[in-house]
Amino acid sequence: MTATVQRRGRYTLFETPRQNRILVLGQDQWFAWVGGQQGDILVRSDREHERDRTLQEGEFYLVDFEGDPDFNDVPHLFLEKNGEFVEVILPNGLPTDADSQKRVVGTEKTIDRDKLARRLSSSSGGVHESLAAERKGSLDHELPIPDYDELSVRGAKVRLDALSPDELRRLKVYEAQNKMRKTLIHEIDRRLR
User: Fold this and answer.
1) Which region holds residue 153: left if phi is over 0, alpha if psi is between -120 and 50, else beta?
2) Which one of 12, 109, 112, 161 is CB 3.0 to 4.6 Å from 87, fit for a cystine?
3) Comparing C-alpha atoms, which of 79, 27, 58 is closest to residue 135?
4) Helix, strand or coil for residue 158?
């Protein structure tokens, strides 16, 4: 039974003057949340949206579960709302440049912060620190490479040369806390020397 946090940070869900819902993960991933006859979808978008009103905001966690009896083996997005986390199921993950639309299943299921922290800690052998200890100031939601989590090691490696030492250090911390790709951490270290 494992839980891998693919990404975490701050999110905003807002409505445009035309009543379109826009989900922003961190500051670099923008999606239109569109309702349709066959269910909801997330559509990759840009930053060019006028905000009419904020619907929700808080912390988010994108988690892959494997072998957990309480969660399907597909990515889950947990969005903080009123001190708890609302579960959103992403059967095929988040939209990417190559596949700009993905189905999303909003649920009414919530999990409190401590229970989610215990689930992530016990599933990963204590690798992840308690969610209760994390606050707004974490660096991981301000990644210097857009769509970093979707990149392969090769794709991320070619973008490292354009980063400042501070950006490389932030990326290294994020990588070490999330995917732990040793080759990429080595490449970051090499550029920091």
Assistant:
1) alpha
2) 109
3) 58
4) coil
- Could you tell me the two tokens for 189? 């270290």
CB count within 10 Å of CB 67 equals 10
Which tens digit of pLDDT belongs to each residue from 133-167?
Answer: 443 334 334 688 887 877 888 888 888 988 888 88
pTM of the model: 0.64
Per-residue confidence (pLDDT) for residue 122, from 0 to 100: 60
Token pair recorded at residue 157: 């490696």
Residue 170: which pLDDT band, with cuts at 50, 70 and 90? confident
3-state secondary structure of 53: strand
Instruction: Round to whole Å and give the CA distance between 22 and 18.
Output: 11
Q: Which structure tokens are listed for 43? A: 């559509």
Strand partners, 84: 81, 112
